[in-house]
Design a protein that fits this description.
about 550 residues, Cobalt-precorrin-4 Transmethylase, domain 1, Methyltransferase, Cobalt-precorrin-4 Transmethylase, Domain 2, Rossmann fold, 4 domains, five-stranded mixed sheet, five-stranded parallel sheet, 20 helices, about 35% helix, globular
């Protein structure tokens, strides 16, 4: 039995290393198996096919070596001339294993269906290098599932898999003469030829079929047709091969493949924001859960920070407040942002303190993300607004100072240098003394790359989420005004007003001041827009497809 990755991590290196041949699936990062993630976390060297490098590298161990197979200009990106790159990958694997390294060799789909991987396994066996195989979701199985095309129906027809690049005339003849569902791996410009081979072998021209490109990714596109009409359907859709020439294409042919029911079963491509590029003007850390939510709706989030956080110019005030917190100067501490939590936490760590320093102090938090940041720190908030998640909402629930029940009348309020005075004034009115402390400064972030700026101004983004008035002002300041085809979604009336003052049309307004409710509202808007397009007989559902110069308008 092959050792697990954890066992290998604990074992001393032998003279020879160990190779894990790992299937990375057809493209969706979520299809990577738990066993694959474990193996990647313990790898010394990761050698990955280019098309799955992004999928697997995010799980690689910090410090792992990730060499890339070299390709000359003639072979780069061309599937038919990729042998030099494959040989180079095999050399990288064998060289690292001979040096006693733990190597992960990641391939698209499942390694058991990859002939080149089989050759690399034989090379390991020939030199006595121990190896194991971590199966992955096979492209020929995973892509039809994401396209809404079950391969077997209640009738239980056979399923045959054909690689059009290596299929012989006999293979086509036997497949065409059967009534099995056929799954063909091919290139986009070879689909019509594959259909012709099946018709010539005896399949009826009216046999249903589907063609899916970039399956399981947010670039996925599926066309339904018959063997006799697929050439015209692809031509009408102006479906072109990718520039690299290696865009994966899966064709499913057969009366029993449920291709005719795809409109009802296409769960992936019918997500409300499928394929939408959504601009999120926040840092990756701030936008993590929001971006995950957008991905669940089928969107492709793109984080662009509009605000940079810097330490206060005079840190002495913050230092005195933190020392006062430890010595019992405060009854309450109120956090109004994740950045405020981060600033206090960093100061705690500087002094060697942890969450236990909050013992005996009541803690308030505005917003679900702020509360989560506190919980991650080990502090459970005592007060979170029951209504609106804002300073005003916090004041509605904040108790007035009572000298009988409150031994201390002072509140520590760490916040940004540009914060409004609403909370301070309200607390003073309730009888509290407030130490209003600048915990951090917010400055306008540096402009994003030129490519991102052009996409913002040129309509390359389908939507932008504005979570505050400052994000509106800063995004326009560092990148320009979003194109008028871009859907503008705002978290509340104040943010919407600022957007309108900058000449933007507000399409979506969150029902509550919550980033997750804002994402939900955008998803509802996208679903309504998709339904209207389908009713009108249009394929175009993404706003960016309607900008001037877009290649595809209607199917």
């Amino acid at each position: 039995m092959s050792p697990t990755a954890a066992q290998l991590a604990r074992a001393p290196h032998a003279a020879l290393g160990h190779v894990t041949f790992l299937g990375a699936g057809p493209g969706d990062p979520g299809l990577l198996t738990l066993r694959a993630v474990e193996a990647l976390a313990h790898a010394d060297v990761l050698v990955a096919d280019p098309q799955v490098l992004d999928v697997v590298s995010r799980h690689a161990r910090t410090g792992a070596d990730i060499p890339q197979p070299e390709q000359d200009e003639a072979s780069a990106g061309a599937a038919s001339t990729a042998a030099p790159a494959l040989r180079d990958a095999a050399n990288l694997v064998m060289g690292a294993a001979r040096a006693g390294k733990r190597v992960v060799r990641a391939v698209a789909g499942d390694p058991g269906l990859d002939a080149d991987t089989g050759a690399e396994m034989l090379a390991c066996a020939g030199e006595g290098i121990p190896f194991e195989v971590v199966p992955g979701v096979a492209t020929a199985v995973g892509v039809p599932a994401y396209a809404g095309v079950p391969l077997r129906s209640a009738e239980g027809a056979d399923v045959r898999f054909v690689d059009a690049r290596t299929a012989s005339e006999r293979c086509w003849s036997e497949t065409g003469a059967s009534d099995a569902t056929v799954v063909v791996s091919t290139a986009l410009d070879a689909v019509a030829a594959a259909a012709g081979e099946l018709v010539a072998a005896g399949r009826k021209p009216d046999t249903p079929m589907t063609v899916t490109v970039a399956g399981t990714t947010t670039r996925q596109r599926t066309w339904s047709a018959t063997l006799g009409t697929i050439a015209q359907v692809l031509k009408a859709a102006k479906a072109l091969p990718s520039p690299s020439g290696n865009q994966p294409v899966i064709v499913v042919v057969g009366e029993h493949s449920a291709a005719a029911q795809r409109d009802q079963l296409a769960w992936f491509e019918s997500k409300p924001l499928f394929g939408w590029k959504v601009l999120v003007p926040r840092t990756k850390e701030q936008a993590a859960s929001l971006s995950d939510q957008l991905r669940s709706y089928g969107a492709v989030p793109h984080e662009v920070p509009t605000i940079a956080v810097e330490p206060p110019r005079t840190p002495q005030q913050m230092e005195r407040a933190v020392k006062g917190l430890v010595t019992g100067r405060y009854e309450w501490i109120a956090f109004t942002s994740v950045n405020a939590v981060k600033a206090v936490r960093e100061k705690f760590e500087e002094y060697g303190l942890d969450a236990r320093a909050f013992a005996g102090i009541k803690v308030a938090a505005v917003g679900e993300q702020t509360a989560k940041a506190l919980v991650d720190f080990g502090v459970k908030p005592d007060l979170v607004p029951s209504g609106e998640q804002s300073a005003a909402g916090l004041l509605e629930d904040w108790p007035p100072y009572d000298p009988v029940f409150d031994p201390i009348d002072r509140v520590f309020l760490p916040r940004a240098d540009i914060a409004t005075e609403t909370l301070v004034a309200g607390l003073i009115e309730l009888g509290w003394e407030v130490d209003d402390v600048t915990a951090y400064r917010t400055v306008r972030a540096s402009p994003p790359p030129a490519e991102t700026r052009e996409a913002i101004k040129g309509g390359g983004f389908d939507a932008v989420l504005f979570t505050s008035s400052s994000t509106v002002r800063n995004l326009v300041g560092i990148a320009g005004k979003p194109h008028n085809v871009t859907v503008i979604a705002c978290i509340g009336p104040a943010t919407a007003k600022t957007a309108e003052e900058h000449g933007l049309r507000v399409d979506v307004l969150s029902p509550e001041p919550s980033v997750h409710k804002l994402a939900e509202a955008l998803a509802e808007f996208g679903a309504q827009r998709r339904a209207a397009a389908v009713e009108a007989g249009e394929h175009v559902t993404r706003p960016s497809e309607r900008r001037p110069g877009s290649r595809r308008r209607r199917s």
